[in-house]
Amino acid sequence: MSFTLAIVGRPNVGKSTLFNRLVGKRLALVDDQPGVTRDLREGEARLADLRFTVIDTAGLEEATDESLQGRMRRLTERAVDMADVCLFMVDARAGILPADMIFAEILRKRATHVILGCNKAEGKAGEVGVLDAYSLGLGEPLRLSAEHGEGMEDLYEVLMPLA
Ligand code: GDP
Ligand code: MG
């Protein structure tokens, strides 16, 4: 038995960077049927000896008529409902923004299993943002650097019991 992890959070926090790190080239087959949404990318993740499914909430970056907030909500709810656990990602360099609070509220209402990840935490520039992340009330944030591969052991430790 394996599990499904959804990576959620506002645009530009590093969700796809982590997705790519976990999945490498093992992307799930993309369904080319017209009308099939590409907003959620699914892949087969590997983290040391763990194998699981990971979902990236993409598509928020593209301009459409629907408001960003409406799309964030809809996409995030879909991803959450598909997943056993969510990695809610915030940006240690940007700190906690109003959009992050909206995600925190969606996740709290969904009463889902949430791991808080504070990405871009490499170096000194991330320290304030990590402290700020405690204010979300979602527990201790994992310090991650998706780009540099830092914090992967901590991510492993929180995911291991789910496998
Ligand atoms: P997404 O919109 O949440 O999917 O974010 P992306 O994965 O596209 O990343 C947004 C930007 O943040 C890109 O320029 C990445 O190179 C950068 N980024 C991602 N992870 C890190 C990190 O750990 N540290 C730093 N400094 N930048 C990062
Ligand atoms: Mg992305």
Please bin the fraction of helical residues: 25-40%
> What compounds sit in this structure?
guanosine-5'-diphosphate, magnesium ion
Global Rg: 15 Å
Structural category: alpha/beta
Tell me the strand order in the biggest sheet.
2-3-1-4-5-6
Low-confidence stretches: 29-36
Number-wise, the strands total 6
Give the terminus-to-terminus CA distance: 7 Å
Oligomeric state as shown: single chain
- Largest beta-sheet characterization: 6 strands, mixed
- Total number of helical segments? 5
Global morphology = globular
Q: Strand share of the residues?
A: 15-25%
Average pLDDT score: 88
Strand and helix order? EHEEHEHEHEH
List the helices and strands and how they pair.
Layout lengths: L3 E5 L6 H9 L16 E8 L2 E8 L10 H15 L2 E7 L6 H13 L3 E6 L7 H7 L8 E2 L8 H8 L4
Parallel strand pairs: 1-3, 1-4, 4-5, 5-6
Antiparallel strand pairs: 2-3
Bound molecules: guanosine-5'-diphosphate and magnesium ion.
Could you describe the 3D structure shown?
The protein is an alpha/beta fold. α2 runs parallel beside α3. The longest helix has 15 residues. It is globular, with a radius of gyration of 15 Å. Bound molecules: guanosine-5'-diphosphate and magnesium ion.
Can you describe this structure in just a few lines?
The protein has 163 residues and is α/β, with parallel strands linked by helices. The protein has 5 helices and 6 strands, in the order βαββαβαβαβα.
Features:
binds guanosine-5'-diphosphate, six-stranded mixed beta sheet, binds magnesium ion, 5 helices, single chain, alpha/beta, 163 residues
